[in-house]
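Tip: read the tokens left to right.
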């Protein structure tokens, strides 16, 4: 379905991004893989994708806290693969602590990685999308782009911000064949949430698996975490022609969390 298209997925060395990379690669999409791993590990991952799926792959471990590193990596990726047709802003981090005690460096990192980096990648990717008259911008926000939770001030601020950014990009690109949407997942089973599970296990003197269940069911009516591949399948749908009228939306995938 995505033959001759190229997708750049930030944070695709782990979790949701890695699962989405597999789903798009299965559909013949060329890939820019990206994330915090050594150059050697990244090149090995790229080679593995390339040989398994017969696609072109470029890898970068640019630190998204650095706007200049983002500009350099995007320029390299476009030179290498021709254009970025699908941009998935997925990389993200978490830190949980009440606002009164929230460390400034954590606030700055979360805003930089979970919000500002997407503004920078969108700026870099738009010219080639506009030139081709086709593009898909998919921002992995969160249920926390729609509602708040205690101890997540920076995360909620960044995720609400990305929902706002998505709306503006959709409006500005509506006549260019480019759609922009935010996916808002509830709990997804990835390494990002392990600290939170371990904290509940410690506080309630219980097992990791029991703590995981307690964490999910505290807010989410559907009592299971999503599999990261489900987000990949949703991204694939948003890339299809059938989804061309969906733009400017914040799309919950949250087991009815925000239905309450
Ligand atoms: P993860 O920890 O498995 O992966 C995060 C990715 O981001 C990794 O590839 C990592 O290398 C990259 N990254 C982190 N800091 C970076 C930096 N400074 N520079 C470059 N890359 C960096 O996490 P995940 O759960 O797959 O999260 C992916 C996205 O989904 C995030 O935006 C997250 O907020 C969002 N999300 C996750 C959940 C969940 O329950 N896991 C729920 C809703 C939304």
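Filled-in amino acids:
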């Amino acid at each position: 379905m995505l033959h001759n298209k190229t997708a750049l997925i930030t944070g695709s060395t782990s979790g949701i991004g890695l699962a989405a990379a597999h789903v798009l690669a299965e559909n013949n999409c060329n890939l820019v893989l990206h994330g915090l791993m050594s150059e050697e590990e990244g090149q090995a991952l790229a080679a593995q994708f390339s040989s398994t799926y017969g696609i072109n792959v470029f890898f970068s471990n640019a630190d998204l806290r650095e706007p200049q590193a983002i500009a350099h990596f995007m320029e390299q990726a476009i030179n290498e693969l021709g254009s970025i047709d699908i941009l998935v802003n997925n990389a993200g981090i978490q830190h949980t602590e009440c606002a009164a005690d929230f460390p400034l460096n954590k606030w700055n990192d979360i805003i930089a990685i979970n919000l500002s980096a997407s503004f920078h990648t969108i700026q870099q990717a738009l010219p080639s999308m506009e030139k081709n008259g086709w593009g898909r911008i998919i921002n992995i926000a969160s249920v926390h782009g729609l509602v708040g939770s205690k101890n997540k001030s920076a995360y909620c601020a960044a995720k609400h911000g990305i929902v706002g950014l998505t709306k503006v990009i959709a409006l500005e690109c509506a006549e260019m064949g480019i759609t922009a949407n935010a996916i808002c997942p509830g709990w997804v089973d990835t390494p990002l949430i392990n600290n939170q599970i371990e904290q509940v296990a410690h506080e309630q003197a219980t097992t990791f698996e029991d703590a995981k269940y307690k964490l999910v069911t505290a807010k989410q009516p559907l009592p299971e975490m999503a599999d990261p591949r489900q987000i990949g399948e949703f991204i694939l749908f948003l890339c299809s022609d059938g989804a061309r009228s969906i733009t400017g939306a914040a799309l919950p995938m949250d087991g009815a969390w925000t239905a309450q």
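The CA atoms of residues 54 and 130 lie 27 Å apart. The helical segments are 15-26, 39-53, 67-81, 104-132, 153-173, 194-203, 208-219, 228-239.
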